[in-house]
Hints:
30% strand; Alpha-Beta Plaits; 4-stranded antiparallel β-sheet
Amino acid sequence: MLFMVIERFKDRDAxxxxxxxxxxxxxxxxxxxxxxxxxxxxxxxxxxxxxCDDVRLLQVWAAHWRDLVEFEFVPVAPGKATAEALMPxxxxxxxxxxx
Length: 99
C-alpha cells in the first residue's frame, strides 16, 4: 500500500532533520520502502511516498524522528489505478453511483 507522508519540521528546522539523515540515514524498518520525496520551497515540509503492507512499520519509522518531525500518513492510490477502477461508473447518470 502507498502512503503520502507529510512531514512538518518542528521549529521549521530542516537543518536538524538533514543532519540526522546524513548521520543515520532514513532509519526505515525492513518492509517499509521509500519511493520519492519532495521538499516545500521554504523547507517547512517534506512530502514523501512510502510503500508498505503493515502500517505499524510507518509508526516504528516515525518514532525515530518524533523529536524533529510531526507526521501525517495518508493512504493513496496512483491516479491511473483509480481511473481504471472508476471506468465502469463513468457512463452512469449522475446520482446513480450507488446502484
